[in-house]
Amino acid sequence: MAGWRKAPLKTCRKGEPALRIDIDRIESDLAEIAKFGFNEEDRGIYRQGFTEADMAARAWMRDRFEELGMEHQLDGAGNVIGRYGPSDRPSVIIASHLDSVPAAGIFDGVLGVVAGLECVRAMKEAGHEPYYPIDVIGTSEEEGRFGGMLGAQALSGQLTREWLDSASDESGYSLKDAMRAAGLDPYDALHAYRRPESIRAFIEMHVEQGPVLDMERTTIGIVEGISGVFKWNVRLKGKADHAGTAPMNMRSDALMGMVDFAHEIQRIIDEEGTDKSRITIGHVALKPGFPHTVPGEADFTIVGRDLDEEIMRGLANACRRVLSSIARKHKLKFEYDEMSWLTPAICDRGIVDLIERKTKELGYSYKLMPSGAGHDVQFFCDYVKAGMFFVPSVKGVSHAPDEWTHWSDCEMGAQLLLECVAELSSKDAEVAATERELQH
After folding, report:
1. Under the phi-then-psi rule, with left for phi > 0, alpha for psi from -120 to 50, and beta for the rest, what region is 159?
2. What is the pLDDT of residues 207-226, one digit of tens each?
3. What CA–CA distance (Å, rounded) separates 330 from 93?
4. In three state form, how does the secondary structure of 229-293 look?
5. Is 399 annotated as a binding residue?
6. What percent of the chain lies above the pLDDT cut of 90?
7. Neighbours of 211 (CB within 10 A)
8. Which residues, in sequence order, are CB contacts of 184 under 8 Å at separation 6+?
9. Contact 277, 315 (CB under 8 A)
10. 228-342: which CATH number, 3.20.14.10, 3.30.70.360, 3.30.413.10, 1.20.1560.10?
């Protein structure tokens, strides 16, 4: 491979050879998977859940598991699973997704699965036999073509028959029909549940999909939790008027009300939120929407996020108070519908500490941070030991053909994943953890 790379630090354990990932194999795997759904015109990846390209990528992954002599299966939800190690003990799960949004890049989700595959290769090459099995999982339908994260929901037991019956994509094509076209019985997804006693730990490696690590030149982002999210549809109703004849001081201009609220967002966060808080107006529709008419109605969305649910409630209450005050000022009627409220998912402290300790041992720079985007891991945080870390996305670009993560960052992230998984799958892990607690 052309160019110089900063190599991860080698680590040696007593009586064992060093475990070392091979970045060339990761690069090759990503290039192979990128062929499934690649579009020559815009150079993007089109591998939406349960399309032909998506199922071909899953078949390719099963072939890789087969080559490594791993037990493997495609479960009822379309998750592709490969196991390395004994089958009679709880497993350490390495998981992320294989599907994509339209016109995607090559790293989102897939890097975490390929890095998991490489961890198994490295262990087998070193003759490292895990005491607890390692399950590498490429989850299905994480990007929400049908409105959820089907694979993770199924594995964690958060899937219902009612949702399966009603889910459809934007075109109206039902999830059930898509699964049947892919050769799956949709109701078999209800049998994909993994009981908590069958899971020792869950860990996900992912590209950041944001600019923080890249801008700060930091190698690893250790995720403390997935931000909770509330979504409102807001309506400010005034009076449509002629733009030329209605005096400025006599208008009930709905747009002016919305703009006033937008200017208050930073103050709301300063007073009620934290550095992890986010409030976004993402969609706006004005009525009647004619250049020569004062807007009589502004319909818009508000999406709020934070890692603390009480802070989320404070942000929501502040938004409500500010909008009510602005509506009175502009002679408007204020209405809103809460479309969703998702509670934060906090990563297991022990897994966070493990990732932090291994990052320090490898000599990588890092920071603790929230994830503002949803990920598979969030469905596991409440019932098993689960954690996640990020590697940088160049300029924060993701969900686009020019998404990029430097190979050196992929290499260091995969090495960190290997170090974490090697310890989690070790028989002596609990003894070592107990000794560390006693030392503190």
Report:
1. beta
2. 999 999 999 999 999 999 99
3. 55
4. EEEEEEEEECECEECCCCCHHHCECHHHHHHHHHHHHHHHHHHHCCCCCEEECCCEEEECCCCCE
5. yes
6. 91
7. 14
8. 50, 76, 78
9. yes
10. 3.30.70.360
| Encoded tokens for 145 | 């073509």
Strand partners, 135: 83, 93
Confidence tier at 430 by pLDDT (50, 70, 90): low
439 pLDDT band, cuts 50/70/90, is low
The number of residues making up the chain comes to 440
Going by C-alpha positions, the residue among 53, 73, 190, 88 that lies closest to residue 136 is 73
On whether the CB atoms of residues 231 and 328 are closer than 8 A, the answer is no
Give the separation between CA 86 and CA 347, rounded to whole angstroms: 27
Q: Could you give the CA distance from residue 391 to residue 220 in angstroms, rounded to a whole number? A: 5
For residues 171 and 78, give the distance between their C-alpha atoms in angstroms, rounded to a whole number. 21
pTM over 0.90: no
Domain 23-226+344-439, CATH number (from 3.40.630.10, 3.30.1390.10, 3.30.565.10, 3.40.1550.10): 3.40.630.10
- Determine the angle formed by the axes of helices 23-34 and 407-424, rounding to 10 degrees: 110
Is 108 assigned a ligand-binding role in the annotation?
Answer: yes
Q: How far apart are CA 186 and CA 189, in angstroms?
A: 6
Helices 110-125 and 407-424, interaxial angle, to 10°?
A: 60
Would you call 383 helix, strand, or coil by DSSP? coil
Contacts of 69 (CB under 8 A, 6+ apart): none
Distance, CA of 136 to CA of 132 (rounded, Å): 13
Assigned token pair, 308: 């603390």
Domain locations in the chain as residue ranges: 23-226+344-439, 228-342
Name the nearest CA neighbour of 423 among 132, 7, 124.
Answer: 132
- Kindly report, residue by residue over 164-192, the tens digit of the pLDDT: 999 999 899 999 999 999 999 999 999 99
Count other Cβ atoms within 10 Å, centred on residue 438.
Answer: 7
| 17-36 pLDDT, tens digit each | 479 999 999 999 999 999 99
Contacts of residue 15, Cβ cutoff 8 Å, sequence gap at least 6: none
Pairing of strands 241-242, 293-294: antiparallel
Would you give the distance in Å from CA 398 to the centre of its chain?
Answer: 12
